[in-house]
Specification:
With 249 residues, this protein is an alpha+beta fold. The protein contains four helices and twelve strands.
């Protein structure tokens, strides 16, 4: 009789001991701190940026944590599942604030596992050209190009684009001579040819519009087909095809 009473009593004591131990373990679990690292200030749409989540401290921190990123708009280009992703806002996001969230899998169940913040996107400003001019004498054209080179040198984050319009009445020989003059001056000034592009089109009059273009710029905003841009360093190889001369009969 006494044996049958002792067995359940000892079993109850064991359960109590296990519960106390589990409670003590939970009491001493230190949760990790989560912090989102976003770019400071506002960013431009179309410009890729890095988003980072920092996981620090914690007694149960594991090396196999997984990170689930979500954004209310824009797109994650690379890094999903890791602590750092590359993100890019799109044109429609200009002037808005995008919600950025990341959920961390692998942390203790009683610890905070998600962190959220907002990323402001810059409002688009009206596109303004750096310079615009019509038909000029050679030395005047060179002077305008020098001002263009100076501005690009002071702003290395920009690329230069020359939108050059010729009339349909101007000959291929004339068009080629004007382009040759521009190209020769780029070479003469030893400016980096890969940083300058030409966009040649037909227009009602001869006109050159000078632009400084940021990374990720949407060329449709200034009515340009980006696929038809010609880098200055590739001009010579495209020169004949760009301005074909009519064969004499």
């Amino acid at each position: 009789m006494s044996y049958s009473l002792q067995r359940p009593f000892s079993f109850v004591l064991a359960l109590l001991a296990f519960g106390v131990a589990a409670f003590a373990q939970n009491e001493h679990t230190e949760c990790s701190e989560l912090e989102l690292g976003l770019p400071r200030g506002v960013i431009q749409d179309g410009t890729p940026v890095t988003l980072l989540v920092k996981v620090t401290g914690g007694t149960a921190l594991r090396n196999d944590l997984l990170f689930d990123w979500s954004v209310s708009s824009g797109m994650i280009l690379d890094g999903q599942g890791t602590e750092a992703v590359t993100f890019k806002a799109v044109k429609k996001d200009a002037g808005a604030s995008i919600k950025i969230s990341v959920s961390v899998r692998g942390l203790p169940a009683n610890c905070r596992s998600e962190v959220t913040d907002v990323l402001p996107i810059a409002q688009r400003l009206p596109n303004e050209s750096l310079d615009s001019f019509g038909k000029l004498k050679p030395n005047d054209l060179r002077a305008r190009l020098d001002a263009f080179f100076t501005s690009l040198a002071d702003n290395p984050q920009y690329e230069g684009v020359l939108v050059i319009s010729f009339t349909t009445k101007q000959t291929a020989k004339y068009k080629r001579s004007r382009m040759d003059l521009i190209y020769s001056h780029i070479v003469f000034r030893r400016f980096v040819r890969k940083r300058i592009s030409f966009y040649v089109q037909a227009g009602p009059q001869e006109q050159t519009v000078v632009w400084q273009i940021p990374d990720g710029f949407d060329y449709s905003d200034i009515e340009i087909d980006e696929t038809k841009l010609l880098k200055a360093d590739g001009y010579l190889s495209k020169r004949t095809a760009l301005f074909p001369q009519k064969r004499k009969r």
